């Protein structure tokens, strides 16, 4: 596994953060994981991160207080690190329009329904955009 990928779990629901972190680990994804409770927390973390080599996989909820997922995506579009941020929207929204809107953002590589599970984590890992970050990953 390449170590220069950090995972940011961004959700205002602490139970969902716990579940998603557990499923990532159960899936064999042992990368560094950072928990953020809204988009602003995630944005501030990224803004203050100093290593220019690190890539970020952001598992992003849509509906959150302070800064929602859409506002986060708009905010990072102007950041110098935008090309190192790969976003998977993780939402309870089932409307096809939400998925289409999400996939219109160049940083968004996938859209998954909440909650994640081992199978959905496997789909994320095998995403073409993340090829090389999870070389040793084998789905159960």
UniProtKB/TrEMBL annotation:
Keywords: Phosphoprotein. Pfam families: Response_reg. The modification 4-aspartylphosphate is found at residue 61. Residues 6-129 form the Response regulatory domain. GO terms for biological process: phosphorelay signal transduction system. The keyword Phosphoprotein applies. PROSITE patterns: RESPONSE_REGULATORY. This is Response regulator receiver domain-containing protein. It comes from Dyadobacter psychrophilus.
């Amino acid at each position: 596994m390449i170590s220069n990928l950090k995972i940011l779990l961004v959700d205002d629901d602490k139970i969902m953060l716990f579940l998603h972190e557990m499923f990532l680990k159960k899936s064999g994804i042992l990368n560094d994981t950072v928990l953020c409770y809204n988009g602003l927390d995630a944005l501030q973390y990224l803004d203050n991160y100093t290593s220019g080599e690190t890539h970020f996989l952001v598992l992003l909820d849509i509906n959150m207080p302070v800064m929602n997922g859409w506002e986060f995506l708009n905010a990072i579009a102007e950041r110098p690190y935008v090309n190192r941020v790969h976003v998977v929207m993780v939402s309870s929204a089932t409307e096809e329009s939400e998925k289409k809107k999400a996939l219109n953002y160049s940083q968004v590589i996938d859209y998954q329904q909440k909650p994640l599970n081992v199978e959905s984590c496997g789909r994320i890992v095998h995403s073409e955009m993340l090829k090389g970050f999870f070389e040793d990953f084998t789905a159960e």
